[in-house]
Amino acid sequence: MVASKEPSVLLSHLHRADGSATFSQNGYTVIGAVNGPIEVPRRHELPEEAVIEVLVRPAAGVGGTRERHLESILHSTLRQIILVHNFPRHLIQVTLQITNTPENKNTGSKVVQAGSHLAILPALLQTAVLALLSASMPLATILTSVSIAIHADGKSRKLITHPSLKEFESASSVHIMAFTSHGEPLVVESQGTFTLEDWEEVFETVKALCHAEHNRIDDNAMQGVDGKGNMLEFVKSAMGEKVAQDLHWHT
Amino acid sequence: MPREVEPSVNERQFFEKALAENLRLDGRAFDQFRDLELSFGDEFGVADVRLGKTRIHTNISAEVTTPYPDKPFDGLFTITTELSPMTSPHYETSRPSDPEILLSRILEKNLRRSQALDTESLCLIAGHKVWSVRADVHILSHDGNLIDASCISVLAALQHFRKPDTSSEGENVTVYTLEERDPVPLSLLHFPYCVTFSFYPSTVEEGETVILLDSTLLEEQLREGSATIGINKDGELCQIAKLGGISVDAVAFLGCVQVALARVKEISTFVIKRLAEDAKKRDKGDLMAELRAENDR
Amino acid sequence: MPLDTSTYSLALLRLDGRRWNELRRLTAQISTQVAADGSSYLEMGNTKVMCTVAGPSEAKGAGGVRLGNDRADIRVSISIAGFSGVDRKKSGRNDKRLMEMQHTIASAFAQNLFTKLYPHSTISLSIHVLSQDGSLLAACINACTIALIDAGVPMHDYICACTAGSTSSYSSNDETADPLLDLNTMEEQELPFLTVATMGESDSVSVLIMETKVQVGRLEGMLAVGVDGCKQVRAILDGVARARGTKMLEGSRM
To answer: How far does the signal peptide extend, from start to end residue (chain C) (predicted)?
Structure first.
């Protein structure tokens, strides 16, 4: 089964969480729930800003160092985009439940090769942002994320956006980047061997994918062309649909 | 941590008044289940159960490990349940809460102790290599009756799961990938489903009890007692758990067991139907795989 | 591992010489600990438990979940002595089986005691298991009942418990299977059984736990015998409580 590279999302579908989203892309499906701002245990309280708690739960087995690493990346990222100073002495809980990962050859085996855990990072980041939006959490900016794998053998090199698990593993280097809606880089995680030129090319490619120039979006909208592959456009249209649905009776 | 919202006095009185008039807040009959939905994932062993607004996602995984020294012929079967903040913010991740413990105890008794999964069939080489089957029960949304929904979810996922085929030569075990050989289903001996009853003291007749099936979260918060009956469709009781609460007449309780048996038969047929539909869907797109399976035999 | 109980059908006597409807020797003492508000010591055969009650007392601070403040909160802690069983193993603090038993006892008595008379307070029961030989939960419930009587906490009625089993294993479907009353460890390991607790002399079931597989038709017989056993237990516990009461009255007269 070939996983679709097109993203899809379901918003606010869990009834008890303040905000929730199910996001799937590239064979990964992540369910995210956001609760907050809520009371925080005394020992964790921060006097001047909100505490952000990120919980990543794998589909099978209990979380280990891999999940803790992802949580730490997510935590430092989300702290930058949530307006934490608006909610001092509060807690914002982000729970991300991974429910589907691309099929690996050993069916049902919970063993995932070491080092490949970054492949899920774009899906986690995207789910977290969508769930935060669904919870109406004030954000400084929204964030879009894309992964790219470089296959280099000697002279030729090939860039693959949204690489599959196989491409991810066989790549000479992988890059996961996230950009704000203003086009500023927020997360840059690279693994493998690559040159500075490679990196710059990746940077520009991802930037184009995550964030198109404003006039281009307007053009597309006017021409009725959806921003195919553009993540920012995707998030905007998903939210737009959701808002239109919510305001259905509000003519 | 924030505390769980408790039903207000108004809600409580409204509920009691409705109950006295033989009504439930969502208009169901006392012995009626909410709409049950069951879907399977792309991978084997992934089942998603929705019972009203309750939603449970179960993922089965298997790996080869060494067995416990005191049980060299038995494979391992573990069920993990954890209520995460996704369900409700008052669940702490570090300390298991009471409902969580009861849920995992009942699943354990119902599925493991009753030998629903034949653990001996998971043995590859006695004392050295066995399959370790693990069921991760993820509770995504909690609107009452977690026990019944989890039980359906785990049993459906177990029936849906296929473990990789293996062959052993002396001390060596080869595990074949999906491409090499079709995976094989688990050997399940019987399918004990759970039915939970909620008890309320009757306001109409002194000493009588009102019995509800498949209670919502509000009904669960307001109930004075509950009983979970685990039974398979052949009428074998696997566990009964009436852990305190108000007392129920013994004869009325025996009636509950009969109701549970009838419900379990319905649930069994439903799950089997859904499994058959899923199998059909898989075959259609992958006719070659089916042909190959024929040839293997 | 499976014992040979095939002799039962010949003499209709169980391994320890009892008939099917006989309880083991049940003895209980009341007010065994002077320092506690209420205490008891109970033996059901070789199962020996001690129970002390503290309270009703002021509710402890923020620890734990408080169930509203309009009634007393009941807390139960069970500790099993290392030397109580055959295999000497230390049970962890997070033993789910123990936590389930604690929950069961707490919620059974929450409905039985007049907890509304004691708002903002806690009644804590602590149970020490000194020796285990089957019917553990039943013994704990019985010990709690008389300890609470000793503590003078008002209650609707006695909660009395015992176990009941069935002589046939679940696989064989013979109709001649007899129900059995009050099982010991060896019988518990081999036979399907249930623990039942009833309210006083009525037939209403407060606790019913069964963890083994059994044919549904067998349940009625087991439950009937269990409920009957509970009534026998109640008579014994009532005797203990009355004897204690008479003694106290005599003491006050002097």
So the answer is: none
